[in-house]
Amino acid sequence: MAGTQRLPLHTQMLMPRAGINRAFALLYSCAILALLYNHFIDLLQSTSMVSVFLLLADSVLAFMWVTAQAFRMYPTHRQVFVEHLEHYVKESDYPGLDVFICTADPYKEPPMDVANSALSVMTYDYPTEKLSVYVSDDGGSKLTLFAFMEAARFAAHWLPYCRKNKVVERCPKAHFGSSNPSRFPETDQIKMMYESMRVRVENVVKRGSISHDYITKEGESEALSRWTDGFTPQNHPPVVQVLLENGKDKDVTGHGVPNLVYISREKSTDSPHHFKAGALNVLLRVSATMTNAPVILTLDSDMYSNDPQTPLRALCYLLDPSMDPKLGYVQFPQVFYGINKNDIYGGELSHVFEVHMPGMDGLAGPIHVGSGGFFRRRVFYGCPSETLEMNRDRQVSDSINSREVLAMAHHVAGCKYENQTEWGRKMGFRYGSLVEDLYTSCLLQCEGWKSIYCNPKRPAFLGKSPINLHDFLNQTMRWSVGLLEVAFSKYSPITFGVQSISLLSGLCFAHYTFWAIWAIPVTIYAFLPQLALLNSTSIFPKISDPWCWLYVVLFLGAYGQDYLEFVLSGGPTQKWWNHQRAWMMRGLSSFTFGLVEYLLKYVGISTFGFNVTSKVVEEEQSKRYQKGIFEFGVPSPVFLPLTTAAIINLVAFLSGFAQACRQRSIEDVFLQMFLAGFAVVNCCPVYEVMAWRRDQGKLPLKITVISVVLAWALYSASSMAF
User: What is the membrane topology listed in the Swiss-Prot or TrEMBL record (predicted)?
Assistant: First the structure.
């Protein structure tokens, strides 16, 4: 047995590219210093606003590049051996697992999708008596509760079906919708039951009311009767409904089922609710009164389990006696299904999960990304060296549905419960930012907790990504506002991280939290050289000047490194091109609006709220997306920077070409024409929606007209300036 226990649960190795990354960082840093030196010399010789803007743009680019290198110093690869877990712990000794799923709007996050996510984790290869699923409905919708009543009934058939046939894809929607579905004797019958459930739930959501014919189980009418005339999403009492209870409810084969609990916390217009962080803290407290499992999994409403052994992979780290006792959580990547062939919006976030996460794994560990994180419950109650009263809400009871436990659960779900407590500051998920996941995980690491990145070959979870440009840009804008809130918070993890963890970890935090300043160089380089070109003004060195080639080296070096990392991780060239274009779009639109929104909020003019990204997909929109066609469609101001830049760059490139033909030389304007031409190629989808498209995804004429006016105004202003 002693020899058997030496079988490793996991391995860890430094990726081979680390040495190359370090050498390249040294050489590229020298080039950056040379460029900044040249800018300072130019400023000393002739101070002009153009020189100041170029220095500002290149300084920000240098900052973003330097902080990004922190991810590349210690990239780490890990491998897990689930088959060795039985040599360390018996299945009966597995720790309890509480799964938290959050939803907020039944019309943007379809209840049927949320139910599919819950059913996928209820069928984990895990002891059912140790598994509980808690669903937070921040929209306070009886439609969502009804969907989970239906899911609870269907689970009695779905769980034994998956168990008997060893189904791997245990999300019903994915299983039955697969292009090559597995066929078993009961498949048609179970599929018919699923379709019947889906139709009932979707009919209820469409009508906005629940027919009495759909209420078939004792107690369901009483649960739904809480939705009275005064019950609104912003003002209502707490609702805690136990839908399935292990030890009491059984599946059709007589086996036990996991606990399934619906929760809608109390809301009041007089009390702050702290968005998703507040909902997660209520789940922490309610689950503590019921099951109090030592391990917690957080899951987005649109993320479903794609591997029934995922909890066992997490246990290979959490139960390994050789691991650092400060290990706080294991983070799995977010992988998205339904992405079109070339990922036109960069929705896969490949660099985050293929470069940044492995890089942070070699330091103090990856950040939490809102979903797919297996946490030790005790991380939410203080730093590793502290001993706080974790279980003060725990009530000892044989039944989670007893009157005493439910009374306590309703109490801790009240909106006044957190008053005069440390919740949101030193306990639970932290308040103060729209990106509560990153903020909380950063502060946990600053307190001494470690994390691990687990990226198995088969994705642990699959979720949805926006399939139209408006949702994509708005989602990124919300992130940028939240990240700036983190950067300038009272407990900023940037300085705290440098002091308590390491310089490299602090640089990683800084790179994320200052994402929004990417708007500064992108905006400057998208407009300033082109406006100068339109006014026949050269602002860059000539081709014959050696400093000109320094720009070329820096451009090719940055893009070359980015390209190699992308293709070496398995991405095709066309997808890489779309990803870099998506970052340009983020910089011009999302980050610019996010930066302005944060500044307005900081001075008290605006209060940016949490806006749920819609997960509803229209059929025609989906067809266009799968063909790789950009979707504009709505007259939103977030498109104005993109369309205005597209117009100015096209006109500037044509103007520069005409100048070059007249002078029979492009020596003076080579770099400016290159930037304009590069932007024009990137803006091809914008020109298409402005001029040629006739479908519903075209750019509204209103935005085109406003963009032309803005472009003309910028040109007029630049004519006077130059």
Answer: Multi-pass membrane protein
Per-residue tokens: 546? 């050696």
Q: What does the alpha-carbon distance between residue 589 and residue 595 come to, in Å, rounded to a whole number?
A: 10
- Residue 487: other Cβ atoms inside 10 A: 20
- Sheet arrangement for strand 335-336: 304-305, 461-463, 335-336
Residue 90 marked as a ligand binder: no
- Residue 127 C-alpha from the chain's centroid: 30
Q: Three-state DSSP class for 566?
A: helix
130 is an annotated ligand-binding site residue: no
Percentage of the residues of the chain whose pLDDT score is greater than 70: 94
First to last CA, the chain: 81
Helices (H) and strands (E) counted in the chain, each on its own, are 25, 13
What is residue 116's three-state secondary structure? helix
Instruction: Judge whether 188 is annotated as a binding position.
Output: no
Structure tokens at 162: 């998956």
The C-alpha atoms of residue 59 and residue 61 are separated, in whole angstroms, by: 5
Q: How confident is residue 393, by pLDDT bands cut at 50, 70 and 90?
A: very low
Ligand-binding annotation for 618, yes or no, is no
CA–CA separation, 35 and 24 (whole Å)? 17
The first and second tokens of residue 603, run together, are 């001075």
- Told to judge if 398 belongs to the known catalytic residues of this protein, a careful annotator would answer no
Q: Write out the two tokens for 362.
A: 């070699």
Both tokens assigned to 128: 């059912």
The sheet with strand 295-300 has its strands ordered as 239-244, 259-264, 131-137, 97-103, 295-300, 373-376, 327-331, 450-453
Q: Is 138 annotated as a binding residue?
A: yes
| Choice among 98, 138, 249, 343 that is catalytic | 138
Rounded-to-integer distance, Cα 461 and Cα 588, Å = 31
Residues 289, 405 contacting (CB under 8 angstroms): yes
3-state secondary structure 520-542: HHHHHHHHHHHHHHHCCCCCCCC
pTM (predicted TM-score):
0.94
Question: Which one from 113, 302, 437, 471 is the annotated catalytic residue?
Answer: 437
Distance from C-alpha of 611 to C-alpha of 597, rounded to nearest angstrom:
14
Q: Check pLDDT > 60 for residue 390.
A: no
Say how far apart CA 692 and CA 251 lie, in whole Å.
Answer: 57
pLDDT at 670: 93
User: What is the per-residue pLDDT across 304-349, written as a single tens digit (0 to 9) for each?
Assistant: 999 999 999 999 999 999 999 999 999 999 999 989 999 999 999 9
Active site residue 324: no
Alpha carbons 133 and 125: distance in angstroms, whole number: 14
pLDDT at 611 over 70: no
8 A C-beta contact, residue 465 and residue 348:
yes
Q: Is 140 exposed, middle or buried (0-12, 13-18, 19+ CB in 10 A)?
A: buried
DSSP 402-460: SHHHHHHHHHHTSTTTTTTS-BTTTBSSPPS-S-HHHHHHHHHHHTT-EEEE---SS-S
Report which of residues 389 and 658 the model is more confident about. 658
- Least-confidence region, from 4-13, 125-134, 410-419: 4-13
Judge contact between 267 and 235, C-beta under 8 A.
yes
Structure tokens at 151: 């899911």
